[in-house]
Design a protein that fits this description.
Layout (H helix, E strand, L loop, with lengths): L1 H30 L7 E15 L4 E15 L1 H7 L3 E11 L5 E12 L12 E4 L5 E2 L18 E5 L4 E13 L2 E22 L10 E17 L4 E7 L2 E6 L2 E8 L2 E3 L1 H60 L11
Antiparallel strand pairs: 1-2, 1-13, 1-14, 2-3, 3-4, 4-5, 5-6, 7-8, 8-9, 9-10, 10-11, 10-12, 11-14, 12-13
């Protein structure tokens, strides 16, 4: 009976060890991927934002609302294959009276696990009514990797057209949800493109166009749910000023904008349970299976060994009780 119990424990231990391995190398990698059919809408609001009004041809301060609509292109992702998602992000910014002042669309292909941009034939950036511009995206664009780590990552900046490191800055609770805080500071830098603006905007007599340099800076603060890599809360402080001969003449865009409370709440509601499930499959269940599996194997092996030893001892006792016949030989 003991031997049977021992073999059962050995079998159960082997089963738990196998399941632990399968969860780690198969189940988790299968689930920890960005969906190719993703759909989301996020809203950012910036109060007291300064910008150049094309209609008024002057600097204006107002509350600006940006709506970000992200849609995954299923067909393009299936054509790309190899764990690649293709997402389109359309951003429209409007004033407090509902007037749309700018639009931008980007199309990015990225690795569904790491979030890193990958090569794709149909990648572009399109601003307002301008034609799409082919863009070689790099680094992270939409989200951080699954199982985000506590170190810096390369985050894509559309104004600079390149990645800039975004640094891990500690753990922070957002409405009870544990997030990793990442910060990025972009010091003032001249953009490669100049901008022709009406002289009136620069405080000069109207009727002329003046070529200006664009100097850009930004500060980003992202709160990232580490299991999913999703940005739960985002705050940015972009600044683009127009300069002539090294002197600032006007503000093109300046202020601080961030996700609304409703967007943050929606993000938490959508990803809190998903994060818990991923953590369960990535860490808790494999670890529990490993510990219990090893324990069962150890106990099972001991029980089997003891059962065999008891059988041997019992057999020895039976032989000890048997009187061997005496053989006498007379010469």
């Amino acid at each position: 009976m003991r031997r049977i119990v021992g073999f059962v424990l050995l079998g159960l231990g082997a089963f738990l060890l196998t399941m632990s391995l399968l969860l780690k190398v198969y189940a988790y990698p299968t689930l920890a991927v960005a969906p190719i059919d993703h759909k989301s809408i996020s809203t950012s609001v910036g109060e007291d934002m300064t910008y150049i009004s094309k209609a008024q041809r002057a600097e204006v301060t107002d509350t600006l609302t940006s709506t970000l609509n992200v849609i995954g292109d299923v067909k393009a992702a299936q054509e790309e294959g190899d764990n690649v998602a293709v997402w389109n992000k359309a951003t429209a910014t409007q004033t407090s009276d509902g007037t749309v002042i700018s639009t931008e669309t980007i199309r990015v292909a990225f690795d569904r696990t790491t979030g890193e941009a990958v090569d794709c034939d149909d990648r572009y950036t399109q601003s307002d009514e301008d034609p799409p511009v082919p863009t070689k995206f790099e680094g992270l664009n939409f989200k951080f990797p699954f199982n985000t780590q506590k170190h810096s990552y390369d985050w894509w900046d559309g104004d600079l057209g390149r990645t800039v490191p975004i640094a891990y800055d500690g753990v922070e609770k957002v409405d009870g949800l544990t997030t990793y805080r990442f910060t990025q500071t972009i010091e003032p830098e001249q953009l490669p493109t100049t901008l022709d603006v009406p002289s009136k905007i620069l405080g000069e007599p109207a009727g002329q166009m003046v070529t200006t340099e664009q100097w850009y800076s930004n500060e980003r603060v992202y709160n990232v749910e580490p299991e999913t890599g999703v940005i739960i809360k985002a705050v940015e402080s972009p600044s683009t000023v127009l300069m002539v001969d090294g002197v600032q003449r006007a503000i093109k865009t300046q202020g601080t904008t961030g996700y609304t409370d409703e967007t943050i709440k929606d993000n938490i509601e959508e990803y809190k349970d998903k994060a818990a499930q991923l953590r369960l499959i990535r860490l808790i269940l494999p670890l529990a299976g490993l510990i219990l599996g090893l324990l069962f194997v150890l106990v099972g092996a001991v029980v089997v060994i003891l059962a065999r030893r008891n059988d041997v001892d019992s057999l020895d006792e039976q032989f000890d009780d048997v009187e061997l016949p005496q053989h006498h030989q007379t010469i």
